[in-house]
Structure formats: structure tokens, C-alpha cells
Amino acid sequence: MIMYGIKNCDTCRKALKWLANEGIDCRFHDFRKDGLEAETLDRWLSAIDPDVLINRRGTTYRKLDDEHKNELDGEGCAAVLLAQPTLMKRPIFEIGGRYVVGFADEQKPALKQLATA
Fold this sequence. Notes:
This protein is α+β, with helices and mostly antiparallel strands. It is built from 8 helices and 4 strands. α1 links the parallel β1 and β2.
């Protein structure tokens, strides 16, 4: 399992702690430190609805100009997300070609199931 996020995100820290307590192995990939490859983002965009992937309530989104916000709804979505990966909801879990976005109580059973599959 790979967990994508940023180191100083409270939700990512909670998720890492929960995974450790559950005995689920996970490699953490920090967007800011490790970057984000276009191929990875392309996989996500083909498997995850952009409305699920994009955090439209976060500070990064609110600071975007209208032109970039409009690009998120069209063909420029990947370019904007590559330039501003913190626009995505965190964390993003990748497990054998399957994905879980976010870390709330409703995601925990899916993470357990995918980790043991």
C-alpha cells in the first residue's frame, strides 16, 4: 500500500498512526518532498472521479484564480493538479491498482479489506 499526502497534514498523520495500529504496512509518499509523476496522476484521473479527487473546500483551491478553477473542470485538470498537488484530497491510498481517497470512518473498512486482499 502506498499512501500519498503531505507530511504536515493532520489527516495524513492520523491515517499513518491508524495503519500502524492496525498492523497494515504502508509506504508514505509526500507530494511536496517526493513530487508527483504525471503517470501516477493519469492513473488516478482515469480511476477516480475528479469531483472526488479535488478538494474544493481547501485553502489551495480558494487561492486559485478563476482561470485555474475552470481548468479543473476541463482538459487542463491534470496540469493544474501537477502544479498544485495539494489541491487533491488527502490522503490517497493506492493498493494493487485500487484507490481510496480520504480518511474518515467510512474509508477504514475499505482500507482493511484492500490491505488483506
